[in-house]
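Q: For a teaching session next week I want to show students how multiple molecules come together into a single three-dimensional assembly. I've collected the sequence lines for a complex. Could you give me the predicted structure tokens for the whole thing so I can convert them for display?
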Amino acid sequence: MPAWPDVRADFPILHQQVNGKPLVYLDSAATAQKPRAVIDALVRYYERDNSNVHRGLHALSMRATDAYEGARTRVAKFIHAADPAEVIFTRGTTESINLVAHSWGRAHLKPGDVVLATEMEHHSNLVPWQQAAKASGATLRYVPVLGANAEGGLDLAALDRLLTPSVKLFAFTHISNTLGTVNPAAELCRRARAVGAVTVVDAAQSVGHVPLDVQALGCDFLAFSGHKMCGPTGIGVLYGRRALLDKLAPDETGGGMVVSVDYEGASWKPAPERLEAGTPDIAGAIGLGVACDYLEGLDRAAIARHDSGLARLAYEKLSTLPNIRLLGPADARSGLVSFAFPDVHAHDVVTFADEDGIALRGGHHCNQPLMRKLGLTSTTRASFYVYNQPGEIDALVSSLQRTLKFFRG
Amino acid sequence: MPAWPDVRADFPILHQQVNGKPLVYLDSAATAQKPRAVIDALVRYYERDNSNVHRGLHALSMRATDAYEGARTRVAKFIHAADPAEVIFTRGTTESINLVAHSWGRAHLKPGDVVLATEMEHHSNLVPWQQAAKASGATLRYVPVLGANAEGGLDLAALDRLLTPSVKLFAFTHISNTLGTVNPAAELCRRARAVGAVTVVDAAQSVGHVPLDVQALGCDFLAFSGHKMCGPTGIGVLYGRRALLDKLAPDETGGGMVVSVDYEGASWKPAPERLEAGTPDIAGAIGLGVACDYLEGLDRAAIARHDSGLARLAYEKLSTLPNIRLLGPADARSGLVSFAFPDVHAHDVVTFADEDGIALRGGHHCNQPLMRKLGLTSTTRASFYVYNQPGEIDALVSSLQRTLKFFRG
Amino acid sequence: MSADLTELYQQVILDHNRRPRNRGRLPTANRVAHGDNPSCGDQCDVFLQLDGDRIKDISFDGSGCAISQASASLMTTQLKGKTAAEAEALYKKFHEIVTTGKEPEEISDLAAFAGVHTFPARIKCATLGWHAALNALKGDAAPATTESHTD
Amino acid sequence: MSADLTELYQQVILDHNRRPRNRGRLPTANRVAHGDNPSCGDQCDVFLQLDGDRIKDISFDGSGCAISQASASLMTTQLKGKTAAEAEALYKKFHEIVTTGKEPEEISDLAAFAGVHTFPARIKCATLGWHAALNALKGDAAPATTESHTD
Ligand SMILES: Cc1ncc(COP(=O)(O)O)c(C=O)c1O
Ligand SMILES: Cc1ncc(COP(=O)(O)O)c(C=O)c1O
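A: Of course. Below is the structure for the complete assembly, covering every listed component.
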């Protein structure tokens, strides 16, 4: 493990006991914990600057507007967007993807078109495309995953065959929330662009964990959630290339996104306003901006090494448990490990771990079709972030040993 | 003015100077300030319980789920919904109304149908219906407002003529954010139901100000925003009668709202989950629940008396200013007053008031068509809430006198 | 192991989990229903051989945690021979046990599930099989889900 | 009145606001463009009589705050006789003045708008008329809006 500062002191929630044991939080892929700086930013906003944005000329409103738009600029820098106007604030990854599926899908998809996804997509990057395909008469196809435990990642040879000129859009996850696979996103975007397909990258599991540059990736759209990267709940981002955003019709309409309204009709502002109808989550956006600062301060390349280092260590140590099935690649993986036992169900594993103060996630991880393909209904997942330590992996392994002993006798 | 406790101590933001003067916040119709209790609830959540909901079995996740669902139950009680499942968490009023316009509109509206709105709707309860009508081939009609200054409220005689059996949906605001008019919502719902029309009530300006009982109103859908009722930004509610919600197709799809997904298709959970795709704004919902507690603790009938008492007082005192045009009814009004001068523009008024530490809103208040009908492009609005005091109205009047003197010489 | 956990994973439950009774497709079934626990992906099919109003034979199949498997298994042993109304009544009692922890004297093995009530997230596990069985009795073709709001 | 506010509402501005120059529809106009400030509903029409590349005559009409009205009025006095390129260059300077507060010596009355820069929300007011004028010069039929991201 590379050297890593102990940042636990920055996270108030970690300093508690659960069931009489110190909390070991290994569920960051579901949601990350929040550093003091982010919590303080919310408090500061509500105690000093709270006001509605955009339409106000008084001091508070100007401060709130500056802070909100400042957050947009901050986030744009964090993902290396060419222009802050390419950052649309949404509730999260799910809403961001639905926005593209609705607005872009309705305008561009027609019968005979193909939407391409992969077999490892989260329901949030899968069901919206099923719906868009159904509504438009387009066909949805999937890039297969390779290997009995999906250890081979995406089948890039199959991708070559699947990426025909009928493919109008290719939606894929940067990092799988179940397998830990890191997909070659830049390469996938490059190949998609070669056939003229628009790319949608689900960066829910990547943007807070690895350095990310949308221009280097060459994607058209990219979606993520603040709550998975130390930000507040309820805020997320749709990044879109300016040229595409400018042509994107709004999905929601209402206050703040119109230029002119009469009783017959309305005209829209340019992006980003056009795609942000109604009062936005002002405090949430500000909190997300501060989360960007926090992660940048830790050095994002170092975070990537730390998280995947812990995951590799966990993979190694877990593989010593009898009759364990480990999913995803052994090596190049992001900060999580998913596993299953043939005779002990994930729910029982999670309940027993909780007894030891360890927070794990058990279930299908919004990945039902992939589970089914792998012959599973659920797995247990341990996921790591900046505040986790190698010692917590030892605690996890001991806890699992006790659980197996109980059920196996 | 009825007796009223000074609750300013509950609101940290109010105790500051703006431009060297004590802040007088008269912009609560845009967004309300937050009591300490709500801010503390957010901090407590992030410092103790933060976790993703619904799919977790560990201690934090169970606590977060309980708190989130507890907030749903709390909000349901606050509006007297028959069942917590009738409360859908959204980003705010705008998203709530769009959800109905999209999901209900797509399923039910067809050419020849009429959607009825009123001339006093906020853009957020107007543009979505324009879009729904355009998409379906239905016609959008408006109930007129009466009087040169809209002091007569809705034209109820015209409503009789307009409410034909072709009207499939009637969307109207409970309280106008520009006029302060309080519409007879129960009466409007009763009349709409008589012709079989579904009702959508925009309660953005009412739910935090007056006691509200969706069952007594007899509405089908009702929308509001947390941020206008002492809650956090980024959270709001769509109330829907169970019978309608159960048939409502989801607009957004993704994690958390599905029963079963395979590569071909998906099936949905019942409401409310079906209509809440993705990770919700957990902290926001919890904060909104606490805002309900706070307002209930002040006695909602008393809040209504306080707010409208201040507005009537302001109306009276403002009417002494030379050449002022006051909008909306003189009497039965909610907690706001909108006014205009023929020779001094709202923006200049707001900038001068800000100089005196007074926060006002100037502009079209997302009410462009109504403004145009009244021969205005903008008004200045003072809006009141639980923390305002009669003395602040005197400060407002003196500030306006100085402004008029400056411009009029 | 804590008292709560020992109470949850009682010997009866572990036993039914390890050696489920009446597991597999019932060849003589004339009713079948499918249950889903959407929050975790657990599934349960219940097969009934109904003779008029009476459950002549019953089996289950599916996958899930120890609690859901043991509950479905134990349920089959309790429902065999019961009428639809009796099954309904028994579920009411079972539901009371898992949600309140109260153990009515007259019910024997079902009381093993009283420990569930301190783990509210697991109530859905314990009731999955029951939901499917009641749906099968009603002849309801729609898959049962534990996401109903009566749980 | 604070120094900032005195600086914002300079005498020149108040004067143009009270007695706007070149206000109303220009009968000889061969170009017209409409400007919107969507954040407040202010509107401004600019009418041009173009002679080749040169602004032979100009007027404005619309409604808005003192800053936007005075700015449009003053603009018309400055643009009369200018070529499109000169107008463009003048707007660049004006934009610099209202966003930075810098007052280049060679520009006389426009410098009255230097006070705007301490009120960033009012920059859109000051530039509304200019946006419309530049659009009219380009012959751009789309309404100008101050919501572009170069503001
Ligand atoms: C009457 C009315 N309806 C709708 C809205 C829109 O609410 P939000 O911006 O929170 O979505 C508002 C407030 O802006 C309002 O006053
Ligand atoms: C890969 C991936 N995509 C999408 C999502 C959905 O994110 P959210 O629930 O924040 O919308 C998640 C997290 O749940 C995820 O891990």
